[in-house]
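Sync notes, pocket subgroup
Present: LS, DG
LS reminded everyone that the earlier model was apo-only. Rerun requested with adenosine-5'-diphosphate included. Inputs:
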Amino acid sequence: MGKEENSNNEKTDERLEQYTQSENLTHRMGQIKHKIMVLSGKGGVGKSTVAVNVAVALAMNGKKVGILDTDFHGPSIPTLLNLGNARPSSDGTSILPVNFVEGIKVMSIGFLLPNQDDAVIWRGPMKMNVIKQLLSEVNWGELDYLVIDFPPGTGDEPLSVAQLIPDSDGAIIVTTPQDLSTNDVRKCINFCRQVNVPVLGVIENMSGLVCPHCGNIVDIFKKGGGETMAKQMNVPFLGSIPIEPMIVEASDMGKPFVYHYSKTAAAQSFEKAVEPILDIKEKEKPLSKNVPDVNKSDTALRIAVPVVQDRLSPHFGHCETFVFFDIDVENKKILHTESVTAPPHEPGLLPTWLHERKTDVILAGGMGQRAQGLFEEKGIRVLIGAPSDTPQSIVENYLNGSLQLGENICDH
Ligand code: ADP
């Protein structure tokens, strides 16, 4: 086998791998009704504490919840839930999250690091890859909410998630009364706006102190700043959580505070703060890959080739038939072939027609930019510049990495 062939094979392997990963990601995320990010401008404001207690409060309302901890440098969710020694298992094809209690599943980067004290240098693209892998390979099953905790600030981790889950429901931003005077929280809100993540609301944590003697809340810092700031920035205010010494104790013991101390003012504030989160309506799913296809394994792929007189049709829209190939991606084998007469040549018809026939990839000779965009919108990938050959050998070459893609031969 020549060098060029080898490199072509590698490229196809890489392409198929990327394709399968994106498919898995869409499938996994499609099983989760709401994805909520928890952010803060800086560390130590109680962001992870809020993430855990929001998740537990949602579960206390009968919701199936997952918690994903994306902190590479100081993952605290395992500690907060007393899961320091837990390790996720695998079912052979996916990673299974750790079951904290019935209805709450947990996945943390901390579970995957050999030793949390080891200094690991993670560069941005590596973080993005690991996060993508977590989102595509962790099998949460069906969830009502996935609560995602991040390191403080607006770095690579929230950026990656915002890009990889473009339909997230939004972010809860955690701040403290002292933090309000800094610009961090505003930066956080602006970050969400830049990456199109809706701001679900601001939680002002450590707001006033619950007196250990009388139980009343003592306002040690000026109160109401969070609400005023939220108003100024035109984002909802979800509520304030007082400083409660039992939160520290519960966290240290790995007991979710909101559940174990449900009678306290702080726990009740958490419960109130999740009310708007419980009210979020489920988004209408587009008629696309977000709807998991139960008949299709994660590794199946359907390729369509436009054909005229038994060979690839150079003019995509003028083909006589489409030949569909069902592929077993893992073994790179054609499982089934079917030839179907093409619909009439009407503008805008083919994307819907091919989407309805569950096409994942089109191997075409040439295609105009606009048509390519319409297919992308339907989640169908288009590879252009395939040679004039029989559909069977085009697909076989694609699978074995020797398909040579040339110019777009019909760009209108
Ligand atoms: P972050 O994720 O923002 O770095 P953590 O959630 O780890 O912050 O919280 C930092 C510390 O503050 C922890 O010890 C936690 O128990 C404590 N803490 C958080 N919220 C409160 C609160 N409302 N009252 C008292 N202690 C709190």
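DG: The chain is about 35% helix and 25% strand.
LS: The CA atoms of residues 78 and 214 lie 33 Å apart.
Action: DG to write up.
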